[in-house]
Design brief:
The structure holds 2 protein chains of 2 kinds. By secondary structure, chain A is mainly beta. Chain A is built from 2 helices and 6 strands. In chain A, the strands form 2 sheets. In chain A, strands 3-4-5-6 form a 4-stranded antiparallel beta sheet. In chain A, strands 1-2 form a two-stranded antiparallel ribbon. In chain A, a hairpin with a 5-residue loop joins β5 and β6. Chain B contains 3 helices and 11 strands. The chains are: A mainly beta, B alpha+beta. The complex binds zinc ion. Zinc ion binds next to loops of chain A. Chain A: It comes from Roseisalinus antarcticus. Chain A: This is Sarcosine oxidase, delta subunit family. Chain A: Pfam families: SoxD.
């Protein structure tokens, strides 16, 4: 798998560390939303968004990819993705 | 009173010649990491330009003026080598002079050897003289820079110096054995 880093360009998977699903953090105090945020994950057959850390340059990337076709369709810096 | 002896990161390891590949330690002079604060890029570039005649490089690029040179190491971060930075009030500046091992890899097979260790396209069409990449050499995080057609410079953490020399010499031995 090759992953697009917004700073470095498309790079080999071995340069990245998987950092979990790209979910928006719930607002405010404890609520059932926080429980879902922490513990509940979809397991989509198709498009999914997750965070990857590009170890050499330090960029957190939100990657859009397809779990069926394995196509990687996009990567943007997490600080610009709002998630 | 004990007299301490200063040793370079690759002391006792380099220089080394394997086949037609030459590995040598580079004395890069002072090394500082420069990371402008939010909104401080223009002021930092202006101060660097005034004092040293160069600005911070863009992604995967290097800049150079005389002995001073900079290489991009991440978003909004660059290493300044070969010169002390001027006063920069709009950037975080960290002296890392003793923290890095700098090694030159020179020879007709330099790219062949690095291709075994670095997961980035180093063909001159994709990686011209002056290009730099934050990537890996084997399992080590490194900066790889093309300094000439057949010359690269690799920068790793000082503690990785021995591993770097081992990886490079092993790969070079393999390439040289092909004849
Ligand atoms: Zn990157």
């Amino acid at each position: 798998m090759r992953i697009p880093c917004p700073h470095c360009g498309t790079r080999d998977l071995r340069e990245f560390t998987y950092q979990g699903a790209a979910l928006a953090q719930p607002e405010g105090d404890w609520s059932p939303d926080w429980d879902s945020y922490l513990h509940l994950r979809d397991n989509p057959a198709g498009e999914t968004r997750d965070r990857w850390y590009h170890n050499p340059c330090g960029t957190w990337v939100v990657v859009t990819r397809d779990t069926v076709s394995h196509a990687v369709t996009g990567g943007i810096a997490a600080r610009e993705a709002g998630a | 009173m004990v007299d301490l002896i200063a040793l370079t990161p690759c002391a006792g390891l380099l220089p080394l010649t394997v086949g037609n590949l030459a590995l040598a330690e580079v004395d890069a002079g002072p090394i500082h990491l420069i990371a402008p604060f939010r909104g401080g890029q223009a002021a930092t570039d202006a101060a660097l330009s005034k004092a040293l005649g160069l600005e911070m490089p863009g992604p995967q690029a290097t800049t150079r003026k005389g002995a001073a040179r900079m290489l991009s190491v991440g978003p909004g971060q660059a290493l300044l080598l070969g010169a002390a930075p001027p006063a920069l009030d709009q950037a975080a500046v960290t002296d890392q002079s003793d923290g890095w091992a700098v090694v030159s890899v020179t020879g007709p097979d330099a790219r062949e050897v690095l291709m075994r260790l670095v997961p980035v396209d180093l063909h001159p069409g994709a990686f011209a003289v002056g290009a730099t990449a934050r990537t890996m050499v084997g399992h080590m995080t490194a900066s790889v820079t093309r300094t000439d057609e057949e010359a690269f410079e690799i920068i790793v953490f000082r503690s990785m110096a021995r591993t770097l020399v081992h990886e490079l010499s092993e790969a070079a031995t393999g390439v040289a054995a092909r004849g």
